[in-house]
Design a protein that fits this description.
Elements (H helix, E strand, L loop, with lengths): L2 H21 L4 H7 L18 H9 L17 E5 L5 E4 L3 E2 L7 E2 L7 E6 L6 E6 L5 E6 L9 E4 L4 E5 L10
Antiparallel strand pairs: 1-2, 1-9, 3-4, 4-8, 5-6, 6-7, 7-8
Length: about 170
């Protein structure tokens, strides 16, 4: 073994804790430290009468709506996308784009209004995201979006409510 190989091995070993820390999935403590919204302490069942059955399945049973089924796919007016359950603003229309996937897609959420978790439902790990306030499942974030961030926040349309810019936002539900 030559000196260069030995030095590279030491450098790799020294970096392992950093690599591990960066690649691990976030815990509740990690997520709560990045959230600026106070989470509601409301059981999911209490949302059943406040949202449509399809929205409830997506938001609180982590279902996925069929691709191409949401009118929000073609929504191109200026406005804000809210959580369909608690009405927390999640996305600005300036960050919406057509991804060709069949679901409303965004380049980034409103800072602090989204929480994330690792999801293994499709065997390979994905990053699931949810409303930071009510915990409602919104969709998944992927690393295949447009520059500069390279993120695609792929959302279930039924989990969102659109409000035109200039219109009064509904009061947050509690």
């Amino acid at each position: 073994m030559n000196r260069r190989a030995v030095l590279q091995s030491f450098a790799t070993l020294a970096a392992l804790p950093l690599i591990s820390a960066c690649s691990r999935s976030k815990t509740a403590a990690d997520i709560s430290s990045t959230i600026t919204i106070k989470p509601l302490n409301k059981p999911h069942e209490e949302w059943r009468g406040l949202v449509s059955p399809a929205a409830y399945q997506v938001l609180f049973e982590e279902d996925t709506e069929p691709p191409g089924s949401s009118a929000l796919n073609k929504e191109d007016r200026k406005g804000t996308y809210l959580c369909a359950a608690c009405y927390l603003p999640l996305f600005d229309s300036a960050n919406k784009y057509e991804s060709g996937t069949g679901w409303p897609s965004f380049t980034q959420p409103i800072t602090g209004h989204i929480g994330t978790a690792r999801d293994f439902k499709m065997i390979l790990p994905r990053t699931e995201y949810h409303c930071a306030r009510c915990g409602g499942h919104q969709g998944h974030v992927f690393k295949d979006g447009p520059l500069p961030r390279g993120e695609r926040w792929c959302n279930n349309g039924v989990a969102l409510k659109f409000v035109l810019r200039g219109a009064q936002l509904p009061a947050l539900r509690s």
